[in-house]
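Hi, here's the filled form for the chain we discussed.

Project: internal
Contact: R.S.
Residues: 474
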Amino acid sequence: MAQPSPEALQRTLDELAGREPLKGAAWGACIQTMDGTVIAARQGGTRLTPASNLKLITTGSALHAFGADYRFETRVGYTGRIEEGTLKGDVYLIGGGDPTIGVKDSIALKPDALFWKWKSLLKGAGIQRVEGRILGDGRAWEGGKENTSWTYDDIGTYYGAGSDALSFYENAVDFYVSATEEGKPVRIQQIYPETPWMNIENQTMTGPAGTGNSLFLFTTDLSKSGAWRGSFAVGRKPKTEHAANKYGALTCAYYFWKYLKNTGFEVSGGYGVPDTDEAPSRPGNERAATGVPLVLVGKTLSPPLSDIVRFTNWRSDNFYAESLFRLMGEKASGIAVYDSCRVAEAEVLESLGLDPSSVRLEDGSGLSRRSAVSPAFFCDFLRAMQGSPAAGAFLGSLPALGEGTLRTLLPNHPSCSRIRLKSGSMEGILCYSGYLLDESGVPVAVFSLMTGGTTAPTGEVRSALARILTLLLE
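And the returned structure, exactly as it came back:
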């Protein structure tokens, strides 16, 4: 396949800079061959907010650090003693960061299938009933679940749900909402998962026709209470709202307890979480809340990292990305707070021959507006990943034009399969970074197109960037 025409690409970049929707915006572009030769660029070294383009660095770094076959582990253990088939103590579900527990993705076990495995581990240890509790233990990952730089209106949503060492359903909860009469509360019904410990008030109002949807669930992990606020206009179609669940470990324990109860396995003490965080429980040092070592009965494994990364990039999954980011911190330093995660990722970038001081990586998903990456750095990273043992898994995780989050981007172009990329978008931000492939699927060029501060509709910005991608394909 012929290399893209440098003259045509550069001319298009310069032309776009002088007209709407990019005129006056902060934006940059860089296109390189696989040996690092710059084909065309404009403000390629300018650091911009990458939005979900940051997931390229997160997923690539995780694959490079742990390998495509890495799997998260969830351990099952107990305290107390077993007497004639009865455990006189508590069962612990010890989280190791697996983000796929309870999800609907095809790569993961359905909840009942996973719970059957956990139950089988208990029975294999000689436990037929429990005089105690089922405890969801997410203590392996310290610190807050959310990044402190995320905006408040993101943290309450499903895509702003913080990651946990033990989670369930991506720490999200679904509600069915519909309008009633103007001036009356919106009808809100919790669908899944159940969270019977929560007291959620309805402080909403059905608004006049045409006023839109401003519903938001306000919650905190400091209190098992919350409130729906905002309005939902008369005449709007009912819909499912996805909100954040601050109690992922407790939800996991509840659903396993419920499964045991429904299958005739008695647990007299109910469900819960460890009473204190004073004794962290990590692989190799699993401990009860009192500091007493746990007796382990076995473990279950997540899908391979390559599958998790593919889902992360294909649908731009924030929860999966943050789990990978925190995993890097946990493995590198034994602590999964965000400062450790940033240090760990910087070490991976150095191992790839890149300079981590030239970027600011605040989180794993790109939800933070503090992150700053240049188009040139994205190109350098993409080229470096082709020298990684995980190169194939990384390239295979990226959707082609017209797929995944790119379904509206040149979906009918006859050569759409020759571009593999990741998108990233926020209000006023749209980014595309990825690979140009030859006919046999081998990368021949990398590119990064990043825009910020745009005021035009996203569709107009997308069309402008699509011109550049079309030239690459031609």
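Let me know if anything looks off before we file it.
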